[in-house]
Amino acid sequence: MTAYQSLLGMKLDDAAIDDVLTEMGIGVLSMSADGVPYGVPLSFGYDGEDTLYFLFLDASVDLRKETYAEQADTVSFTTFDVDPDGSWRSVIVSGSLDRILIGEWDAARAAMADNAYQSELLEKHELQENPNVWALSIDERSGRAVGQE
After folding, report:
1. Taking a C-beta distance cutoff of 8 angstroms, is the pair 59, 132 a contact?
2. Contact criterion met (CB below 8 Å) for 30 and 75
3. Strand spans (E) along the chain
4. Does pLDDT of 121 surpass 70?
5. How far is CA 65 from the centre of its chain?
6. Whole-angstrom distance, CA of residue 101 vs CA of residue 89
7. Which residues pair with 98 in a beta bridge?
8. Most exposed: 27, 88, 109, 133, by fewest CB within 10 Å?
9. Could you tell me which of 68, 60, 23 has the C-alpha nearest to residue 45?
10. How far apart are CA 108 and CA 104, in angstroms?
11. Phi/psi of residue 35, each to 5°?
């Protein structure tokens, strides 16, 4: 083992990846439109299987998040946890991102209520004909940790 390998950490198994996705509630969604990257920190809900949900709040005048989300074929989402002792763990997932349909609202709301950062904000957003909630269908997932047992 080289000095660098200890910095790379160990690969997380599926159960550990699920733990991180369930516990964190916030991360960075990365998208690209016309070759221009855009990363935005967002709260998220995880359904415990293969979907992350994001509520796009306070849309900008130019609807930047929505525009990138609509144009991106594949997106990436990263969440991580760093402890004061220097140990850390991170998870990266990728897949397609689509705006949910009204029939998916209950599942999205339940996932976000379970583990999204500041999930109480959901109380302000009632069921709408076209909720501004997006679902990332996970195609690939990976995770690493250093100093975690």
Report:
1. yes
2. yes
3. 10-11, 26-33, 36-43, 45-46, 51-55, 75-82, 88-99, 133-146
4. no
5. 14
6. 33
7. 135
8. 88
9. 23
10. 6
11. 80, 5
Interatomic CA distance for residues 40 and 42, integer angstroms: 6
Spatial distance between the Cα atoms of 111 and 97, rounded to a whole number of angstroms? 16
Q: Using a CB cutoff of 8 Å and minimum separation of 24, what contacts does 123-127 make?
A: 125/55, 127/102
What angle separates helix 105-115 from helix 14-24, to the nearest 10 degrees? Answer: 90
Q: What is the pTM of this model?
A: 0.86
Q: What is the pLDDT of residues 61-86, one digit of tens each?
A: 568 888 999 999 999 999 999 999 88
Helix, strand or coil, per DSSP, at residue 130: coil
pLDDT tens for residues 6-64?
667 899 999 999 999 999 999 999 999 989 999 999 999 999 999 999 988 765 556 88
- Both structure tokens of 80: 């991580």
Distances (CA, A) of 30 to 9, 68, 103: 23, 9, 26
